[in-house]
Write a structure and sequence with these properties.
Length: 493
Amino acid sequence: MEKVRDRWSSRKVFLLASIGSAVGLGNVWRFSYVCYQNGGGAFLIPYFVALFTAGIPLMILEYAIGQMMNGAAPESFAKIRKKYEWIGWWALLIGFVVMTYYTVIMSWCFSYLIYSLKLSWGSSAQDFFFNNFLGLSSGHGDLGGIRWPIFLGLIFVWVSIFFCVIKGTKSVGKVVLITVPLPIICLVLLVIRGVTLPGAMEGLKFYLNPDFKVLLKPDVWLAAYSQIFFSLSLGFGVLIAYASYLPKKSDVVNNAFITGLADAGISFFAGFAVFSTLGYLACTTGVGVDKVVAAGPGLAFVTYPTIISLLPFGAAFFGVLFFIMLLTLGIDSAFSLVEAVVAGGMEKWGISRWKVNFIVCATAFFLGIIFTTRAGLYWLDVVDHFITTFGLVAVGLAECLIIGYVLGAERIRRYVNEHSDFSIGKWWNIIIKFITPSILAVLILKNLWNEIKIPYEKYPGWVLFAGGWGIVVLVVIGAYLLMKVKTKKINFG
Ligand code: PHE
């Protein structure tokens, strides 16, 4: 069957979609915390080193193979060697697992958007979040039933995602015109609000005060590499799929630099919104800034709501603004994951976009229901930890090895240089063949060692198996099986 492949309407739209995927919840709550914890301003050094020695080179790699092979991740790897197709599926399945819980966090944002109108969390945002909203049970084994507001929010999120990718590049291209600039506008307003609050400078001092001693610690460097990896959406097959919708003769290098720098810049800027307000919280409550710093969900659903209630005016407005920002930040990251899987499924089985899209969204929704139960947060925590520490980094390593040694880094470099705005030198080959894989291998071994030393959060063995190792292994087996399934192939013109 011969079919015309989807194409982006312009380079601008492709860039917006890629930036939309990269810039997500991770830029707001992960970056600022990781930065603060790893030496404040000094962390920017390993962070930018990681961006230039792994982030952007790998992004060039993913863009190049997508564009060159003209297919989603599985198809692209199959074109390198049939037996490597499973690596593409592996990336997509990891993305699939991530989407099951990423959307649940978006559902929380949706509920909080509504709560913001009345500042419903009252005097204790902490108590409200854990007890009233999540209604946390006693542990992983005690599911305690579904939390209906979260469940309903999840339906809303999935329906939105379904429609965002319904027409592929056509619908995505329209949606990102809004979902990329809108959160940035919200962020600018939040930064202005933040830095004009009393105590803001204290917070910013905390954020940026450089502690150069940390540069001697390997952990700080590894933290920088993992942050770059997650933040740039590398290793999920997203960038491969997006680049495959570009015309064959498109620029690669400049696009990678623009996406990478935009993502890093937004992370850095978001830190100002977060830390200036933390300074304000410390100042009004009289505790040190170091005591009010929170990571992950704690920051968005406990600390921020607390600060919002304390604002001198316009509390509801800034609350709504904050959660609209999170929702619009998250949605384009979420649907990029879906699009990557949909593209892979369509190519393999030759079924319509509509059908694959429906199957992917519905299955991910059903699997995500576990995160809407009273034990949801516990499960989310394990699954997220394992899939992001052992899944995507391993895919990145595999990509470097296959491109570096099987296909040949030099071949890709020449292909890229033929039509990029500016060329990359031989240094790129060295990075892809030696530097990035070594760093990623160390990262994996180090994490493995940590895990053996102290099991994650000291959770019981069956939990670590079911939500952690089991999923990590299942994803690899699943990828292999998907490669083996018989197909009705389509040839894209
Ligand atoms: N890059 C996103 C973030 O920073 C996370 C993500 C990764 C989303 C991969 C989609 C795909 O939040």
